[in-house]
Design goal:
4 helices, mainly beta, four-stranded antiparallel beta sheet, six-stranded antiparallel beta sheet
C-alpha cells in the first residue's frame, strides 16, 4: 500500500482525477419510503458527481493578471468554436483592473467548477488565515457573488475530490482542526459535518450514488533510514478497513478489512471510476469489479503487469474509462471491462516539458472526445519584478486540444487545437 498525500495545487491544470463524461446529462434516483425521511433533511436523492472545470461547451481558467498576484482574471475556452476569450464586453477594456468584469481580487484557489447549465462554483483559500470562501458566478464568470466565508476551515486541500448533487457541495476538509467529510448548502452556504475523520487515518476512495467508500487505516511505518527513496517505498504494517458512508444519514457499514499479516494490506488497492468500483491485487495482477452490496469481487482479468516487472513504480490508479477501456496513470496496458482483454497501450507522440517526455494528459472527458494537452512550445517572456525591474523567464507553454476517444486509444494524434493553457 502506498502512502497517499492529497494536496490540491492550483498551478496544476490537469488534475489527477478524471470524472465521468461531462455531457450535462442529469440522472435521478428513486426515493423509497424508507429513504425519503433521511433525504428530505440532507439531500435530494440525486447521485453525487465529481465536479469538473468544464463541459461539452466550455472549459474555464483563472490566472494572475501580473506577477504581483493581486488580481486574478478568468478566461474561457470555447470547445465549440475552438478558441478562447476573456469574458468581458466592456469596449476598450485592458482586462487588468477590477473595473473589468472578468477580473477579481487574487486569492489562492482552483479554476471554476461547472455546477449546471447556468452556474459556476469557485473556491478560494487563505493559508495564512485558514479561511475558505466559496463564490457563485454565471457561465460567463460574471455576477460573482459570495456564497459563504468559512473561518478556521480548510476545504481546499482535498477539493480535487469535491462532489455535488446540485443542491450541496460535498468535500473532505477541516473545520476548527476537525477532519471530516463536510456538506455545504449551495443556497445559504451553511456548513454541516457529514462524518468525522478525526477518529483515525482516513482516505476517501470515491463516491457511487450517494455513498462514499472510505478507508480507515491503523498502520505503522518502519523507522526512517535516511534513504529518501527507500523510506518512501517502505511498506507499513497493521490493518485497513473499508467503510461505506451514507451522506444522508452519516451512517457507515464495514465492507472489508485488510491486514499485513495475510499480505492483503499492501497488495490490494481500490479505485472508483465512472460509477464502478475496481479492486486490484498487485501480487497476482488481478483486476476485479467490487460489489458494494455484498463485498464480492468479479474478475475482469488476471493479466495486469506486476510491480516487479518494471523499474519505475507501477500505479494502478485509473485515469479514465474510455468506451469500455480502462486507461491507467502509469501502466503500459489498457483493459476492456467487458471482455477482460488487456493489451499494450498505443502511445501518442510525447509532449516534452520540464526536461523530458510525457504522454498527453486528460483535462476533461466529454461524450466522445477528450480535452488534452496536445503540445508544448518553449517560450521566453519578459516580466517585471516587484520592484519594477524587468527580467526574463523561460517556460514550456501548454496548448490544449480536442481528440476523439478512438484516436486517443489508438495513438492517432488527430488534434483540433483549441487554445493556450494557463499563462
Amino acid at each position: 500500500m502506498k502512502r497517499v498525500f492529497s494536496l490540491a495545487l492550483t498551478a496544476l491544470l490537469l488534475a489527477g482525477c478524471t470524472a465521468a463524461p461531462a455531457d450535462g446529462s442529469e440522472s435521478s434516483t428513486v426515493v423509497t419510503a424508507e429513504t425519503a425521511a433521511a433525504q428530505a433533511s440532507t439531500g435530494n436523492g440525486e447521485p453525487l458527481r465529481l465536479l469538473q472545470h468544464g463541459d461539452e461547451k466550455q472549459y474555464y481558467f483563472r490566472e494572475s493578471v501580473d506577477n504581483t498576484e493581486t488580481l486574478l482574471r478568468y478566461r474561457i475556452a470555447d470547445l465549440t468554436q475552438y478558441n478562447d476569450y476573456i469574458p468581458c464586453d466592456v469596449e476598450g477594456c485592458t482586462h487588468d483592473s477590477e473595473s473589468c468584469p472578468a477580473v477579481a481580487p487574487y486569492t489562492f484557489g482552483y479554476q471554476p467548477w461547472v455546477l449546471d447549465e447556468n452556474t459556476l462554483l469557485a473556491m478560494e483559500y487563505s493559508f495564512d488565515e485558514e479561511r475558505t470562501t466559496l463564490f457563485l458566478m454565471d457561465r460567463e464568470c460574471h455576477n460573482r457573488r459570495e456564497l459563504t466565508t468559512l473561518d478556521n476551515c480548510n476545504l481546499f486541500s482535498y477539493s480535487d475530490q469535491a462532489c455535488t448533487d446540485g443542491e450541496a457541495l460535498y468535500v473532505r476538509g477541516e473545520q476548527n482542526g476537525r477532519d471530516g467529510l463536510y456538506r455545504v448548502d449551495l443556497e445559504d452556504g451553511n456548513l454541516t459535518e457529514v462524518y468525522p475523520f478525526s477518529l483515525g487515518n482516513f482516505y476517501v476512495v470515491g463516491a457511487i450514488g450517494r455513498t462514499y467508500l472510505v478507508e480507515q487505516s491503523q498502520v505503522t511505518y518502519p523507522d526512517p533510514t535516511g534513504d529518501l527513496i527507500a523510506d518512501a517505498q517502505a511498506e507499513p504494517s497493521g490493518t485497513k478497513m473499508q467503510l461505506l458512508l451514507n451522506v444522508d444519514t452519516g451512517e457507515t457499514r464495514e465492507l472489508r478489512t485488510f491486514s499485513s499479516e495475510d499480505g492483503s494490506l499492501n497488495a490490494i488497492e481500490t479505485y472508483v471510476a465512472d460509477d464502478v468500483c475496481y479492486s486490484f491485487d498487485s501480487s497476482t495482477g488481478a483486476l476485479s469489479t467490487l460489489d458494494w452490496n455484498t463485498g464480492d469481487e468479479h474478475l475482469i482479468t488476471d493479466q495486469l503487469p506486476l510491480p516487479a516487472e518494471y523499474e519505475s513504480p507501477v500505479d494502478y490508479n485509473i485515469k479514465a474509462n474510455l468506451n469500455g477501456w480502462l486507461v491507467f496513470y502509469n501502466l503500459p496496458v489498457i483493459v476492456n471491462t467487458e471482455t477482460g482483454e488487456a493489451r499494450q497501450r498505443a502511445d501518442l507522440p510525447e509532449n516534452y516539458w520540464n526536461g523530458y517526455g510525457h504522454q498527453p494528459d486528460i483535462a476533461l472527458q466529454l461524450k466522445d472526445r477528450l480535452l488534452v494537452d496536445c503540445r508544448y512550445e518553449p517560450i521566453t517572456r519578459t516580466t517585471l519584478s516587484t520592484d519594477g525591474t524587468p527580467y526574463t523567464i523561460e517556460f514550456d507553454q501548454m496548448y490544449l486540444g480536442l481528440i476523439s476517444i478512438d484516436d486517443f486509444l489508438n495513438g492517432v494524434p488527430n488534434y483540433t487545437e483549441v487554445c493556450k493553457g494557463p499563462y
